[in-house]
C-alpha cells in the first residue's frame, strides 16, 4: 500500500503521477463538496455542515485550479484499500506531529488528557480518529434527549396489553395457571439505537477510557445510556449492529443520532465507510478545519459569536422591515471580526463581506483573523472609500519547531494571550 502526506491549502503533488487527477482517490473526490460526500458516506466532522459558515469552494477536499489540483480547508484520512492519503494542517513540520490540529481539537472538544497516538500525524489510524470523535457525536445527539422508539416485547402475565401469541402461550402456559403469553409494542429508551451506543461505549472503554470520563457532560451521557440499556449483553453485539445497518435513523429531528449511528457502526465493525463503487470505494474521515478554527477562536477569546443556530445572534441587513440576516463570526464592541483559515483573502467576496458588516454595525474598524506561519499581529489592509472605516488583517502566528507538544502549548498560550488583549 502506498501512502501520501499532503497539507491543506496547497497544490497536490504526488510522486509517480504526472497528472494528479489520475490518482484513483483524487479522481473520485476532486471538485465534490463536503455536503455531497457526507451524503455518500464519508464521515465529516462536524457532522452538520450547516455549522460551517462558508459553504463555498473552501469546503472541497480537492479543487481544480486551472490545470492544478489543490487541497482546501480540510484535514483527515482517505483510503481506497490500495492507497492512503493523509492531509495534515499546513502548520505541520514534515517530521513532527500535527500539534496545531491537536491543540485546536483538544480545546474545542474539552479534552484535557489525550493519548498522543490519537493525533499523531504519522501514526493516527482510521479507527483511532473514529474513537476520538465519538464523545463529541454522543454529546451532540444527547442534546435531543435519550433516543426513544417503539419496540416489540414478549410478555407472559395476566396484564394483557397486546395480541396473544398463541404458539408461545400453548408452549408456556399448559396447564393454564393464569398467565397469558402476548406481544406488546411500546415506547422504550432501551432500543436498538441506544444498545448500539452502549456497545460502542463498552468497546471504547477497553482502550480509550479517558475519552469517556474526561469531562462531566460526556460522563453524564455515558451514565444515562448505561441506565437506559438494562438489557445490554455483550453476546448480542452482532445482532444489534445488523439491526442498525438495516434500519438507519431517517427522521430529520434526529439527524444527530443518524450521524452517531453511522459512527458507532464503523467503530464496532472497524470497517471503513466511504464514497464510490464497492470495488473501488474511497473511505475516510474529514475534518472541516475552517469550522474548527472558528470554534477554537471562540473558546480562546469568548468574544460575542454570531451564527445561523437559533441560540446565536445575527445582524440584519435591513432595519425596516428587518430581514436579510448576516453572520459575522465575532464582534468586539462594534468591531466585526471574521475568521479565515485559508491562506489568502478573496479581495472581492471577503472584502465585500467585511464592508457589509462594518456598515451594518457602524464600525470604524473590521478585522480578518488568519493563522500564519511567519507573520504576527495586526496589519492595515486599507481605508474604505465612501463612509470610511479601516479594514485590517490579524495574523495569529502558529509556533513552529517545537520538540514536544508541551513546548508547543506553552508557546501558543502566549499567542492566545496576545490575541485576547486585542483592542478596538
Explained architecture:
A hairpin with a 2-residue loop joins strand 14 (about 330) and strand 15. The chain has helices spanning about 25-30, 35-40, 100-110, 125-140, 165-170, 190-205, 210, 215-230, 235-245, 255-270, 290-300, 350-360, 405-420; strands at about 1-5, 45, 60-65, 70, 75-80, 85-90, 150-155, 180-190, 275, 280-290, 305, 315-320, 320-325, 330, 335-340, 365-370, 375-385, 390-395. It has about 425 residues and is an alpha+beta fold. It folds into three domains: about 1-145 and about 190-290, no CATH class; about 150-190, no CATH class; about 300-420, no CATH class. The chain has 13 helices and 18 strands.
Strand portion? 15-25%
Overall average residue pLDDT: 84
Regions with little confidence, pLDDT below 50 for 5+ residues: 49-57, 272-279
- Main β-sheet: number of strands, strand sense, barrel status? 6 strands, mixed
| End-to-end gap | 53 Å
Amino acid at each position: 500500500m502506498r501512502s501520501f502526506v499532503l497539507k491543506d491549502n496547497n497544490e497536490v503533488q504526488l510522486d509517480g503521477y504526472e497528472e494528479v487527477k489520475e490518482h484513483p482517490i483524487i479522481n473520485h473526490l476532486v471538485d465534490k463538496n463536503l455536503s455531497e460526500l457526507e451524503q455518500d458516506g464519508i464521515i465529516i466532522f462536524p457532522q452538520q455542515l450547516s455549522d460551517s459558515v462558508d459553504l463555498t469552494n473552501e469546503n472541497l477536499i480537492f479543487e481544480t485550479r486551472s490545470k492544478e489540483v489543490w487541497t482546501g480547508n480540510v484535514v483527515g484520512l482517505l483510503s481506497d484499500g490500495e492507497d492512503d492519503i493523509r492531509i495534515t494542517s499546513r502548520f505541520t513540520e514534515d517530521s513532527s506531529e500535527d500539534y496545531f490540529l491537536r491543540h485546536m481539537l483538544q480545546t474545542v472538544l474539552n479534552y484535557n488528557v489525550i493519548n498522543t497516538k490519537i493525533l499523531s500525524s504519522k501514526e493516527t489510524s482510521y479507527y483511532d480518529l473514529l474513537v476520538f470523535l465519538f464523545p463529541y457525536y454522543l454529546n451532540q445527539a444527547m442534546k435531543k434527549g435519550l433516543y426513544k422508539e417503539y419496540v416489540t416485547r414478549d410478555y407472559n402475565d395476566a396484564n394483557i396489553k397486546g395480541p396473544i401469541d398463541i404458539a408461545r402461550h400453548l408452549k408456556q402456559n399448559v396447564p393454564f395457571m393464569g398467565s397469558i403469553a402476548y406481544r406488546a409494542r411500546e415506547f422504550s429508551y432501551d432500543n436498538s439505537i441506544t444498545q448500539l451506543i452502549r456497545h460502542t461505549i463498552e468497546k471504547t472503554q477497553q482502550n480509550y477510557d479517558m475519552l469517556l470520563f474526561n469531562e462531566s457532560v460526556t460522563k453524564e451521557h455515558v451514565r444515562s445510556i448505561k441506565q437506559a440499556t438494562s438489557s445490554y449483553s455483550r453476546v448480542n453485539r452482532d445482532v444489534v449492529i445488523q439491526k442498525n445497518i438495516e434500519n438507519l435513523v431517517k427522521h430529520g429531528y434526529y439527524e444527530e443520532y443518524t450521524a452517531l449511528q453511522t459512527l458507532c457502526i464503523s467503530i464496532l465493525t472497524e470497517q471503513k465507510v466511504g464514497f464510490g463503487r464497492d470495488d473501488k470505494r474511497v473511505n475516510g474521515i474529514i475534518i472541516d478545519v475552517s469550522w474548527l478554527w472558528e470554534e477554537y477562536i471562540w473558546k480562546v477569546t469568548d468574544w460575542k459569536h454570531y451564527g445561523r443556530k437559533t441560540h446565536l445572534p445575527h445582524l440584519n441587513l435591513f432595519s425596516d422591515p428587518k430581514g436579510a440576516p448576516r453572520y459575522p463570526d465575532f464582534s468586539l464592541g462594534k468591531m466585526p471580526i471574521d475568521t479565515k483559515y485559508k491562506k489568502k483573502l478573496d479581495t472581492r467576496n471577503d472584502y465585500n463581506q467585511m464592508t457589509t458588516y462594518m456598515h451594518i454595525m457602524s464600525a470604524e474598524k473590521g478585522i480578518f483573523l488568519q493563522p500564519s506561519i511567519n507573520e504576527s499581529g495586526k496589519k492595515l489592509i486599507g481605508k474604505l472609500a465612501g463612509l470610511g472605516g479601516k479594514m485590517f488583517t490579524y495574523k495569529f502566528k502558529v509556533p513552529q519547531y517545537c520538540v514536544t507538544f508541551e513546548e508547543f502549548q506553552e508557546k501558543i498560550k502566549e499567542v492566545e494571550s496576545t490575541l485576547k488583549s486585542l483592542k478596538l
